[in-house]
Amino acid sequence: MDSPIRDNDTALGTLHWYAAAVCLVWYIIMMSLGLFGVWVVKTTYGRTYHSRSASSPDSPGVSILRPLKGLDVEMDACLESAFLQDYPRDKFEVILSVADARDPAVTVAKDVIERHPEVNARLIIGGEDVGPNPKINNLIRSYESAKFDILWVLDSNVWVSPGTLGRSVDAFASSPRIQLVHHLPVCVSSDAPEDSTWGARLEENYMSCAHAKMYSAINKVAIAPCVMGKSNLFRRSDLNRVAPGGLTDFAQFIAEDHLIADALWTKGGGRTVLTEDCARQPVRGTSATTYFLRRVRWIRVRKFMVTAATLVEPITESLLCAAIGAFALRTFYGISFLFTYVATLAVWCASDYVQFRALHSCANVEYSPYTPAFARGNLNMGPGWFVTWIVRELTAVPVWITAMAGQGVTWRDRLFRIKVDMTVEEIRPLDAREWRA
Fold first, then answer.
1. Mind naming one GO cellular-component term on file for this protein (predicted)?
2. CB 3.0-4.6 Å disulfide test: which of 53, 145, 217, 353 passes with 59?
3. Helix, strand, coil percentages for the chain (3-state, nearest 5)
């Protein structure tokens, strides 16, 4: 078919042409980046990798810091994964920390420590109020008392494979410019398919599809830091050099993970790197409301942190990106709008399916008797998976609109307002569990 643009002499025709040109470029970039991300995931997380540092007596020491707050899904298994690292026993320690002695996480933490007397581990009770960020307040004492320079800040609700620490140390040794090592966050619905909730399925789908491919692609290209704080390693000496107050310098912010990576990158001249490991977070019983509120929270956090990327986020999603591509191809080549739109969504869904299978096969996990069921692979991807994918895609833009319309975020039952300078202030305690995000 001929292009519908017949005459570019008119101002309207010229505007139409330029709009279509911009749309075509954007469509090509997004499709290429998305497929590149799928390729990275498929080739990176499809097998296990040997670690040199795991068996070397000269391996550097690492302090594993795990801040606790309340009871997480599969918390016992997640905490224990730090104790089961395949690494010289005298070269790592585990420091668990909790702000309140009455927190139910204390019992779980003590039980895990008692089961592994061979590991140098301790529990710190009581934080320091250095700012509105409760995670930083919880970590300060662990950060300052850690025995080793390399610190692994590992959230309490994620599980890591036994070789993760060794491969992370290998990554530091691969280049003197590497100053932060992190791992791909993946959510896993730990319920049986017939019992899983909408929120858990949506969380699992988003983190394993849309988030995972962009996170992997951006980190592979490595033109800017892109870090989520589920599982990060960095040297305390490097951070103290770019932030004299150490972790305290980030206590006024919610997104301390990104800002730490950005400081090491821009001020320290360092680089970040993903290893071949995943930080697997089991999710269970999550409501759709909780999922939506969590997505709203992180979009609100990002809109002052990476403003340009946040503003264009809707047109990185499948439904709008497909429409943009269909408009451009119809304009220049006369290809049916409906054909391009449907074909794009089909490719998008198929590539997400392939990527999801790659991540949830757990092929990069070293299995042991301690490996929990949610880390042993679950490829039960029937029609329900496609329904979840469609719902996730349909709700992406409404979630973004909701997020852009406000500045308040809820975190650990507390309400914060995000300011333009990315600092936060606590508004008031938020006790209602249904608003937790």
1. membrane
2. 53
3. 50, 15, 35
Which residues 6+ apart lie within 8 Å of 107 measured at CB?
none
Phi, psi of 93 (to 5 degrees): -135, 155
Question: Tokens 């000496």 identify what position?
Answer: 237
C-alpha span between 402 and 247 (Å, rounded): 31
Distance CA 172, CA 202 (A): 34
275 within 8 A of 180, measured Cβ to Cβ: no
CA 405 to CA 416: how far, in whole Å?
15
Count of other CB atoms within 10 angstroms of residue 172 = 20
Q: Find the mean pLDDT for residues 60-83.
A: 97
* Separation CA 283–CA 199 (nearest Å): 9
Reading the block at residue 401, the tokens are 């609109």
Please state the length of the chain. 437
* Assigned token pair, 329: 């191809």
State the helix-helix crossing angle for 210-221 and 337-360, rounded to 10 degrees: 80
- Amino acid 9: pLDDT: 60
Q: Residue 96 — φ and ψ, nearest 5°?
A: -95, 140
Tell me the sheet residues that pair with 279: 185
**273 φ, ψ to 5°?**
-150, 140
Q: How confident is the model at residue 49 (pLDDT cuts 50, 70, 90)?
A: confident
CATH of domain 1-437: 3.90.550.10
Amino acid symbol at 53: S
Distances 187 to 193, 204, 288, 360 between C-alpha atoms, Å: 15, 5, 15, 9
- The Cα–Cα gap between 212 and 420 comes to 28
pLDDT value of position 50: 83
What one-character-per-residue DSSP string does 12-56 give? HHHHHHHHHHHHHHHHHHHHHHHHHHHHHHHHHSSS----SGGG-
Give which of 130, 390, 116 is closest to 251, Cα–Cα. 130
344 within 8 A of 26, measured Cβ to Cβ:
no
Q: What is the pTM of this model?
A: 0.92
Helix (H) or strand (E) holding 182: strand 178-189
Please name the residues in contact with 192: beta carbons below 8 A apart, sequence gap of 6 or more: none
Note the pLDDT tens digit of each residue in 379-408.
778 899 999 999 999 999 999 999 999 888
